[in-house]
Amino acid sequence: MVFSTRRKYCGRLKCVILDWAGTTVDYGSFAPTAVFHKLFASRGVPITIEQARAPMGLMKKDHLKAIAKDPDVVKRWEIEHGSALAAADIDAMFADFIPMQIQCLEEYADVIPGVIDAVAAFRELDLRIGSTTGYTHDMMEVLVPAALTNGYSPDCWVSATDVPAGRPFPWMIYENTMRLETYPMESGVKIGDTLVDIEEGLNAGMWTIGLAVSGNLFGLSEEQVKMLPEAEFKERKKTALKKMYDAGAHYVVDSLADCPLLIEEINYRLKQGETPRD
Prior knowledge:
It is built from twelve helices and five strands. The protein folds into two domains: about 15-30 and about 110-270, 3-Layer(aba) Sandwich (Rossmann fold), CATH 3.40.50.1000; about 30-105, Orthogonal Bundle (DNA polymerase, domain 1), CATH 1.10.150. It has helices at about 30-40, 50-55, 60-70, 70-80, 85-105, 115-125, 135-150, 170-180, 195-205, 220-225, 230-245, 260-270, and strands at about 15-20, 130, 190, 205-210, 250-255.
């Protein structure tokens, strides 16, 4: 005999889980992109910014592996080195990547406009602030205090190397909710600027909000975004919205500054008995 129980949570949201680069700091998410670009160039196989950005959000070694699987990179690596890119090459490159990334993180710790006010608004709504990242623990030991100096500090942060596996696995979110003491999972919202942020949130059973403009999908600085012709801005945003919604995001907005307004809407949906999986 098979027994099953079904319960619905109809209370209010308890936490938001935020990404870092492109969501709360580093407008345009440039820190990882710059280092991956330099890393492959140092091996005689330059990559494009688009190739560097494509796997954004993954744990950084997984990100490196994903770039290494790009057919164009595979082909040019074999031409340059006379052999296929092997696991030993990945290990050596990642060993070089770590200090390169750590060295530049403070340069990319500026808080994205609207974040400090958004976090204050979340706290006014009695939400606890967690965070996940593709950075390693050692990298976060540099970024977290730098962000604090600039005015941003979540209640909790968990890196990709603090759990068995990074995104799209939900383990970082689960660890956040344990530390924040918030449950059930539908009482949380995952917010991020990459498609794998959305996948992570959905896999954890949370509501998800994608950020279309401030992070990786636009891949531009705030100044560059402001200088875009209106038609180009609209076209870029249309593309970003489609990607986020196709990934399963419940909502998509420009930046974290737009998110507090969605909290009460999600609270209403919860009160009506809706869940993130409906």
